[in-house]
Design goal:
The complex is a heterodimer of chains A (282) and B (50).
Chain A: H1 3-12, H2 15-22, H3 26-43, H4 65-82, E1 85-86, H5 90-106, H6 109-115, E2 127-131, E3 138-141, E4 145-149, H7 150-155, H8 159-174, H9 177-187, H10 192-215, H11 221-233, H12 250-272
Parallel strand pairs in A: 2-4
Antiparallel strand pairs in A: 1-2, 3-4
Chain B: H1 27-49
Classes of the chains: A mainly alpha (282), B mainly alpha (50).
């Protein structure tokens, strides 16, 4: 009720008096501007993250390049000694054909720079094996030791879908996720925080893997299609809520993959057209 | 013909945060805090000016 008379009073004020309420002096403006600039500098927002991990995120590793290779070699040997390895046949040929294309894509230097993969000093002794097991799974150990279970080969409908899974697993090795987990577990241990980090690694492997498969000449849309089929196949089963799971939910995974398909294709097109940032301009 | 960033500079991979693509970098929250500070500051200066 009091607003009306006050407003009318203000309108009745002489112009000079009204201006006193609405104008900052130049020194006040300069002070405000300086504060603004200082805040920008302090926040470092314009610079963005400049860590050594993928996408320039901060990353702490526990293992040296030679230790990482040694861990991969030993674990692979132990697994293959006990597992029923499929020695030859069309399944083995298929896995080797797809894996070799993914491994070749890893060598594309502008792609390494695009993702900020730290591969200097790291040795990859690529090996590909198929193990007889009904589980739909695959993994890649540090140093490039890949295992694909036959259950996965029955599930994938094309080489593109197989490439999506293998590229995801290879991405874990390229991003040194095993070494990072060891470093993290020394500090934060296991628990919800650890699960959250594991989900982040899975998401990162999805992101890197999608770029890898695209640069290997496979269709990234098939990665999304594969996860849709996986979700449908698991239809009636109980899923853990994302917060207590070490993997992102299927829905989130599909949304993120879908969002990255366009940039991955555009990046591949940039390579094909020779639109590559010279190393000296980094 | 299509144009975009040059490959190798991170313009395609585009992580959005210090831990990768799953978190925002916090720019929007910093701007909100700054806007709040500016409002408070301008209010104080207005009072001083009266």
């Amino acid at each position: 009720m009091r607003l009306i008379p006050d407003a009318s009073l203000r309108m009745d004020m002489p112009r000079t008096q009204r201006c006193r309420h609405q104008t900052f002096t130049p020194s006040i403006g300069a002070f405000a501007g300086l504060t603004l600039i200082c805040l920008f500098v302090i926040s470092g927002c314009s610079e963005g993250p400049q860590g050594t991990g993928p996408g320039h995120r901060e990353q702490r590793l526990a293992l040296t390049p030679s230790q990482e290779l040694q861990v991969g070699r030993e674990a692979y040997q132990q697994i293959l000694e006990k597992a029923p390895v499929v020695e030859s046949g069309p399944e083995v040929d298929r896995v080797r054909r797809v894996s070799e294309r993914i491994a070749k894509a890893v060598q594309i230097e502008p792609l390494q720079r695009e993702i900020n993969l730290q591969l200097d000093g790291y040795e990859f002794e690529w090996e590909y094996n198929v193990v007889q097991d009904d589980q739909a799974n695959a993994f890649c150990l540090p140093g490039g030791k890949i295992v694909v279970l036959t259950g996965l080969l029955q599930l994938v409908k094309s080489d593109d879908q197989l490439a999506a899974v293998i590229a995801h697993e290879v991405a874990h090795a390229l991003a040194h996720h095993a070494s990072e987990r060891i470093a993290r577990e020394r500090t934060v241990g296991h628990g919800l925080l650890s699960l959250s980090y594991n989900r982040q690694q899975e998401t990162e492997a999805d992101h890197i893997g999608l770029f890898l498969m695209t640069f290997a000449g496979y269709d990234p849309d098939e990665a999304v299609e594969f996860w849709k089929e996986m979700q449908n196949a698991q239809g009636g089963h109980l899923h853990l809520p994302e917060i207590i799971s070490d993997h992102p939910s299927d829905n989130r995974r599909m949304q993120q993959l879908q969002a990255w398909v366009g940039p991955a294709k555009a990046a591949k097109q940039a390579l094909d057209e020779g639109r590559v940032l010279p190393i000296s301009r980094r | 013909m299509s144009f975009g960033p040059l490959l190798g500079g991170g313009g395609y991979y585009q992580p959005q945060g210090p831990r990768g693509p799953w978190l925002g970098c916090g720019c929007s929250s910093i701007l909100m805090i700054m806007a709040g500070m500016m409002l408070v500051m301008s209010g104080c200066l207005r009072m001083l000016g009266q």
